[in-house]
Amino acid sequence: MSKLEEIWMTVSVGVLVIFMVIVGYQTYALGMGPPSHKETIDPQKVEQTAPFDNPGLIDLGDNKYELVMTLEAFAFNPGNVEVPVGAEVEFTMTSKDVSHGVQIPGTNVNAMVLPGHIQKITHTFDEPGEYLILCNEYCGTGHQAMFTTITVK
Ligand code: CUA
């Protein structure tokens, strides 16, 4: 092997190692990794575990709401929710069976909802209208029928 080849191989492996050390340090020492696996739940016991034992819209006052929602093939529970204009809604979601997705086109709500994990996402509905909530993660033969709405008025 020529001397130049050796130098470049050493440099490229060195750069790789340096980047891995930097990313590892940021993730584990500085806690800068993306949030994930924060809250878990036994997917077999969703119906017995609070707050999912009582899914629904909770009025927190001050036009803030928590929407506790379970996803299963092929439905959102509860569906067809209604909130006032300007409502800040925190979606608290989990799946009772397989991996689902939740997306509200035209908003920043777009996340995976996995069995065993609690997914939280907050959105403020400033514009009145009927918003589509759809599953964007293929979950079985009824996937395309898995949607509901949230009405803002
Ligand atoms: Cu649920 Cu696709």
UniProtKB/TrEMBL annotation:
Glycoprotein in keyword set: no
InterPro entries to which the protein is assigned, alphabetical: Ba3_CcO_II_C, CcO_II-like_C, Copper_CuA, Cupredoxin, NosZ/Cyto_c_oxidase_sub2
Reactions this protein catalyses: 4 Fe(II)-[cytochrome c] + O2 + 8 H(+)(in) = 4 Fe(III)-[cytochrome c] + 2 H2O + 4 H(+)(out)
UniProt main location, coarse: other
Pfam families, per database record: COX2 (PF00116)
Keyword entries, A-Z: Copper, Membrane, Metal-binding, Transmembrane, Transmembrane helix
Residues passing through the membrane, by range: 7-28
Subcellular location: Cell envelope
GO MF annotation terms: copper ion binding; cytochrome-c oxidase activity
Any single Gene Ontology cellular-component annotation: cell envelope
Domain Cytochrome oxidase subunit II copper A binding: start-end pairs: 53-153
Role summary: Subunits I and II form the functional core of the enzyme complex. Electrons originating in cytochrome c are transferred via heme a and Cu(A) to the binuclear center formed by heme a3 and Cu(B).
Name of the molecule in the record: Cytochrome aa3 subunit 2
Gene source species: Gracilibacillus salitolerans
